[in-house]
Amino acid sequence: MIARDGVAGTSHRKVAAEAEVPLGAMTYYFDGMDALLHEAFTRFATSVSAQFVRRMEAATDAQAARDAVVAIILEDVFRDDRDLVLSHELYTLAAREPRFRSITSAWMARSREALELHFDPETTRMLDALIEGVSIHRALDAEPRDPREVELAVARITRALDR
């Protein structure tokens, strides 16, 4: 619902109709739209970061960690338009409403923790910024980008690790 209609277009009534549950059930379980949105975005952020963690935990060496970051960017974190839209809806909501920043802060912390399994904190911050920046470009670019750009960017950011 949020991916299709945006935060502004989502209501208890619409969610109840989509879920085929009585409207009263929605208002019983969620004390207002903020509670519903908070739960929906928490679940979304947790599921995205869980895949991120799985990729980084599976990496066994520096090159596998680089490959994992590339796969996170190109395959996992924002694998389709729905996830891209949801992430940007969450970012916009968190920028406007400080009470939603706990979701984005927790998401970023989990992402950095996973990256720090293989990279130092400074490199981790750069990779995290790359992941976020690429997601914005993927969402907004009119033309598809060459995936090799991501591989090159990850290699350049992590090059110092080879010295």
UniProtKB/TrEMBL annotation:
SUPFAM superfamilies (alphabetical): Homeodomain-like, Tetracyclin repressor-like, C-terminal domain
One Pfam family of this chain: TetR_N
Keyword Transmembrane: no
Domain of life of the organism encoding this protein: Bacteria
UniProt KW keywords: DNA-binding, Transcription, Transcription regulation
InterPro entries referenced in this protein's UniProt entry, alphabetically: Homeodomain-like_sf (IPR009057), HTH_TetR (IPR001647), Tet_transcr_reg_TetR-rel_C_sf (IPR036271), TetR_C_31 (IPR041583)
Domain Tetracyclin repressor-like C-terminal group: 66-159
Residues covered by the HTH tetR-type domain: 2-40
Descriptive protein name: TetR family transcriptional regulator
Organism: Demequina litorisediminis
